[in-house]
Amino acid sequence: MRTILNLAIAATIALSATHSGTLAGEVGQGKSYHGPTGLQLYSLRESFQTDGVAPTLDKVQKWGFKYVEVAGMYGLTPREFKAELDRRGLVPIGSHFPYQRLRDDIDGVIRDAKDLGLRYVGCAWIGHKPPFDEKQCREAAAVFNHAGKALAEEGMKFYYHNHGYEFYPYQDGTLFDLLVAETDPKYVWFQIDVLWTVFPGQDPAKLLKKYPNRWLLMHLKDLKKGVPTGSLAGKTDLTNDVALGTGQVDWPALFRAAQEVGIEYYFIEDESPTVITQIPQSLRFLEQLEF
Into how many domains does the chain fold? Predict the structure, then answer.
């Protein structure tokens, strides 16, 4: 009888952790899209600052996420932040580090990454003087190769997250093509940010297929309908970041390409002022999407 009771309790706990019928740890998965889906914690930067770390991470857990991408410690040390994640069963997959630290303090980056228990270490912005150009691109490639090799020696992988300005024309392609060509595939991978690929006028599905062996991660972000594309500024109004499925992105085509090239983790990143309502909406879209 006790065994039956324990099984019933376990089943109740599992059911209470569901989101739209999906078990915690499988949040966002549906018939066609399989994830795994995590949350880029930068989405909740205002909540971290106003509500604190613990209440904000409680929200992440309540939504059913298991995987997170870290973005800042909000006054805690990496070990303290990792402990807060552990208390909620949240697994830190990667984190972005400042370009300058990757260039000048790779040992410190490695130390912090180990304290966080990261698999991947990334960079989301190349410090540069606009406009981004060939010289600065080649300098960044050298920084990434060095950082990637150092991280590989510690069992971690380095990735770069595109931000739009890399798509300035260069020869027969763009500076992004140059960055891929100049970085060592043994040490440098990429994270495709969907909004920051569509906004500068690129096709993210085609970009994935162009470099099928270089992608690790994806940021799921949709661009508001009617917003003109083609800008290489690397910035747009935060209200142009809308719930998945309500914007300009052709998600079926993109996910087919992403599954083909083997994206390992997908992270929702929502920078909008309505992030708290948009995240559950985006999860429902992913769970219901068929392609």
Answer: 1
